[in-house]
Amino acid sequence: KVYTVPTLDASNQKLHVFYAVPNGTMRFPLISYAHGAAGGGTIDIIGYTALFTQIASYGYVIAAPASCNDGCKDTKNRPYTDCAGLPQIASAGWNSWYGEQLKTIVWAKNQSTAAEQLKTIV
Questions:
Q1: Is 91 exposed, middle or buried (0-12, 13-18, 19+ CB in 10 A)?
Q2: How far is Cα 95 from Cα 57, in angstroms, rounded to an integer?
Q3: What is the largest CA-CA distance in the chain?
Q4: CA angle 46, 52, 56 (to 5 degrees)
Q5: Which InterPro entries does the annotation name (predicted)?
Q6: C-alpha separations of 102 from 6, 13, 65, 79 in Å
Q7: Does the pTM of the predicted model rise above 0.85?
Q8: CB atoms within 10 A of CB 76
Q9: Which residues are CB-contacts of 100 (< 8 A; sequence separation ≥ 6)?
Q10: pLDDT digits 0-9 by tens, 30-59
Q11: Where are the domains of the chain?
């Protein structure tokens, strides 16, 4: 299933979520997937679909942001990329990339009625 998540980077705010059909009231652990360089975007998710489907069949929910395929557009680092006082990454377009996985986790935890089924299984 694909969701649009406004808090993700402006480069692509799509979040691809894979999960098995829940049976009963079981809850499943969430994997917030971090793609590598050129691994996000619209086309690259096709290469991950088989892998994510297999992982989901073992009882995991995989959330894979498509943002920052070839660098991030957003330059705001806080609060997701503040590293306890460490210097910021000085790489144009990548200084906020690793915050996308944290944004994904927050999104999954805060689902509303728009995706209530997901909230009940994560």
A1: exposed
A2: 34
A3: 47
A4: 145
A5: AB_hydrolase_fold
A6: 14, 14, 10, 10
A7: no
A8: 12
A9: 8, 9, 34, 65, 67, 68, 72, 80
A10: 999 988 776 676 767 788 899 999 999 999
A11: 2-121
